[in-house]
Design goal:
The chain has about 400 residues and is α+β, with helices and mostly antiparallel strands. The protein has three domains: about 80 residues, Elongation Factor Tu (Ef-tu), domain 3; about 160 residues, Threonyl-trna Synthetase, Chain A, domain 2 (Threonyl-tRNA Synthetase, Chain A, domain 2, 2-Layer Sandwich), CATH 3.30.980.10; about 120 residues, Roll (Diaminopimelate Epimerase, Chain A, domain 1). It has a six-stranded antiparallel β-barrel with strand order 2-3-7-6-5-8. Strands 16-17-18-19-21-20 form a six-stranded mixed β-sheet, sandwiched between helices. A four-stranded antiparallel β-sheet has the order 9-10-15-14. Helix 1 packs across helix 2, helix 5 crosses helix 6 and helix 7 runs antiparallel to helix 8.
Length: about 400
């Protein structure tokens, strides 16, 4: 049992009357099959229409595999009426018509400019892509294909729809010939430009597509994925990017054509600043290490450095650098901590110093309420939940007491 698919003849009709000929139920959803429908079901890379039946939202439209019936899925347990009034969401329908027709135009443009055939097509609410059977296109070829596609749009060429037999189809210069089935093949012809078999919805004249804009290229194996936008989507994409460009121009106090050079200069300046900052931080850590060695406790022949930092004084990476600088000296043990949103402990020693750092770390971390840590006899570290300086100091004091026991 199949529905008469009226959208094949007229994609512009948004209201129609129909009769329910079958009902199906799946969990809390009901699907109905109508004797005729203008609702487009998901197929051929194009998503389904949405709308209403008797003011009940149609949330999905699919094709039943066994008999090609069109299933209209409703978010209700039942639809008891046998006669229904259908209403197609025109904004979504027209968007799909623009995008799908634009795909036909751009696919043919790539063939004429670069002999690159389309082997894949995907249309969703947010994306529109074609996959080309090539991975090598020059920027000029891409620009020329886009230009040609827009010339076809602005010439407002008529689009014809006709049905032919499989025998007739084989004699025609189709861009793509699908697997042949019994019955008629539906052809979409953009006058004197493109002829292909397709079951989707399309505009009547190319001018309704408005504009085509290629927005991104991605290489995928031996293919090239082209992301683009047509009509209203192209306008929305332009609005977003134009807003970003104007904001950047204002922030950088420069003209639009100078934005890229300005950003590149800012990146280089930032790189230089980070290099200088890193060098200065290294110098500060050198002096910090020297100061800590001078203030260290002496246990036997070993200098024991203990210190807790706040997050505005040092970060975890700098803490490790400081530990490394301290233990470059002979007979030094460093018990370092970092308080803040995430606490950190770092215990390390020079190679000639006594002590097992991996035996100190876990008891200390227990004070912080964590067991996430470990290491070796020479260096051990771990992190805990956020805490204050006093709690981290308690953890280090615990480690120091254990260390004294190890040394003695």
């Amino acid at each position: 049992m199949s529905s008469d698919r009226l959208y094949y003849q007229n994609a512009y009709t948004t209201r129609f009357e129909a009769s329910v000929v079958e009902r199906l139920r799946d969990d809390k959803q009901t699907a109905v099959i109508l004797n005729q429908t203008y609702f487009y079901p998901t197929s051929g890379g194009q998503p389904y229409d949405i709308g209403t039946l008797n003011n009940i939202p149609v949330c999905n439209v699919t094709i039943r595999e066994k008999d090609a019936a069109v299933l209209h899925w409703l978010d209700i347990a039942d639809l008891w009426q046998d006669e229904v009034s259908g209403h197609i969401n025109w904004a979504r329908r027209f968007d799909h018509m623009q995008q799908h027709t634009g795909q036909h135009i751009l696919s043919q443009a790539f063939i004429q400019v670069a002999k690159a055939e389309t082997v894949g097509f995907h249309l969703s609410d947010n994306t529109l892509t074609i996959d080309l059977h090539t991975s090598k296109l020059s920027p000029k070829q891409v620009e020329d294909a886009e230009y040609l596609a827009n010339q076809i749009i602005w010439q407002n060429r008529p689009i014809h729809i006709r049905n032919v037999s499989s025998v007739q189809a084989k004699k025609l210069p189709l861009r793509k010939l699908p697997p042949m089935h019994e019955g008629k093949l539906r052809l979409i012809e953009i006058e004197q430009f493109d002829l292909t078999a397709c079951g989707g919805t399309h505009v009547q004249n190319t001018g309704e597509v408005g504009v085509i804009k290629i927005v991104k290229l991605e290489r995928q194996n031996n293919q090239l994925r082209v992301s683009f936008a047509c009509g209203q989507r192209a306008l929305h994409d332009y609005r977003l990017k134009n807003s970003i460009v104007n904001q950047l121009s204002a922030e950088l106090t420069t003209g639009i054509d100078e934005i890229v050079p300005s950003v590149q200069r800012a990146k280089e300046e930032n790189k230089d600043a980070r290099r200088r900052l890193k060098k200065q931080q290294g110098q500060l850590l050198f002096f910090e290490a020297k100061s800590l060695i001078e203030q260290a406790k002496t246990i036997g022949k070993t200098a024991v450095v203990t210190r807790v930092f706040n997050p505005d004084e040092i970060d975890p990476g700098q803490l490790r650098v400081l530990g490394s600088r301290l233990t470059q000296n002979d007979q030094v043990i460093a018990l370092l901590g970092l308080a803040g949103k995430k606490s950190q402990l770092l215990f390390c020693r020079s190679k000639d110093a006594p002590g097992e750092m991996n035996q100190l770390i876990k008891p200390a971390l227990n004070i912080l309420g964590s067991a996430a840590g470990g290491g070796s006899a020479i260096m051990a570290q771990g992190g805990g939940p956020g805490t204050d300086r006093a709690r981290v100091q308690q953890a280090i004091d615990k480690a120091e007491r254990l260390l004294i026991g190890q040394i003695r």
